[in-house]
Amino acid sequence: MTSAMFIQHFFNALTLGSLYGLIAIGYTMVYGILRLINFAHGDIFMMGAYFIFFGTVSFFLPWGVAAVLAIAAASLCGVIIDRIAYQPLRNAPRISALISAIGVSFLIENLALVIFTGLPRPVVQPEWLVKPLAFGNVRILPLGLVVPAISFILVAALLWVVYRTKPGLAMRAISKDIETTRLLGVKVNKIIAFTFALGSALAAASGIMWALRYPQIHPFMGVLPGFKAFIAAVFGGIGSIQGAMVGGLILGFIEIMLVAFFPEFSGYRDAYAFILLIAILLVKPTGLLGEKLEEKI
Q1: For the segment 22-32, what is each residue's pLDDT rounded down to a tens digit?
Q2: Which member of 53, 142, 217, 267 has the lowest number of beta carbons within 10 Å of its beta carbon?
Q3: How does residue 167 score in pLDDT terms, banded at 50, 70 and 90?
Q4: Is the entire prediction scored with pTM above 0.90?
Q5: Contact 48, 207 (CB under 8 A)
Q6: E strands in 229-268
Q7: Domain 3-283 class?
Q8: Residue 267: strand pairing partners
Q9: What is the maximum alpha-carbon separation in the chain?
Q10: How far apart are CA 217 and CA 50, in angstroms?
Q11: Where are the domains of the chain?
């Protein structure tokens, strides 16, 4: 493999890994607070892609405006899902919330299938994002630079919210002891809804950038990326924001680089993620940066 090809594969891996990381953060935030895997998270990713599609194609909005509105709409969807499907089950056995999460996922996918139809939709890509940049023998799409940059900026903004603001302090307190936090006067349900909104916003941003990178969307487009992002969250350490991003990056590099160096195994590309999940659960169940979390009754 030439150095030019390696650099191109490197940026492809960085782009894919940063997208996995953004989705994984939503999983890890909800789990850190509620000890719940929000299986509908991958479907919020899909909704973000559809929102940007209709915003630009049906309403002819500028890309920037459509992206902001799509992220806001996806955040609202996340809050609604929490209010309808999870909040009434706060005191129920956690298996009930898990079943509810699975049911919400199927509901969103099938609603999207009925409303949007199963026909794949082409996404309009801004020309400046897909016009290759030449650096000697290396040709890189601007998307390969823009997507990781935006992803890291969003993660930095999230970390600032979590560690430098009062809602972030409340989120961290709830993750340690939800009942004591409620007794201290914190409006727990509002903070949890805020958490869902933040996680859904990141998933929608990832969905928008995914639609730019792979410009064809359909109602089930969030299933496999959602599973892989969950694996990335477990690998990095479920409950750790930094770990989720690191896990996503590592998973992206594994997928792209193994296919690049061993093209004969490209048909098994999706299997690498699940092999990684089995390996990390056997060797280090808490993940790379995760801590052992006590189960909440």
Answers
A1: 999 999 999 98
A2: 267
A3: very high
A4: yes
A5: yes
A6: none
A7: mainly alpha
A8: none
A9: 62
A10: 7
A11: 3-283
